[in-house]
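Hi everyone, sorry if this is the wrong subforum. Our group has a chain we'd like a structural model of before ordering constructs, and none of us has done structure prediction before. Sequence below.
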Amino acid sequence: MFVFVFGFWLLLMALDAGRFHWTSVPPSLQGAGASAMLAAMWTILLPFGANPFLTKTVKACLDSGQRLAASGPCRFVRHPLYSALVILRISIPLVLGSLLGLIAAIAIVASLLLRRVIEDRDLHENVPGYADYSRRIHYRHIPSLW
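Answer:
Right subforum, don't worry. Here is the predicted structure as tokens:
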């Protein structure tokens, strides 16, 4: 399902910004989007270095010896990969100049945040020490804010 939604999103932005120019984004926002995109792409790499148990599916891998990752960006927020993906999903339509893509990105971001809620629940139930970790690291996405 996500592949379909993601493909539709890319097609929408291509038709909007590249073919029909239904909407536009000011150049200053495109520049801000490019900076945010670069920061998000770099930030996406950090959790993989700190947590070898990152997967594309939501499930604790206890049978593979999964343990709590509390180093790298996980020292500051519990879900740094989701934070970076949210920024990336918002910055892509800005860079491409598609306001319609930015509006559609809201649905994609909502699905990412829903997945994060499901994953957080799974980690609480299945990963030893996660409840203590979540009490120590209050913030899920943005240090000192959220």
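For your construct planning: The longest helix spans residues 99-126. The chain has a mean pLDDT of 84.
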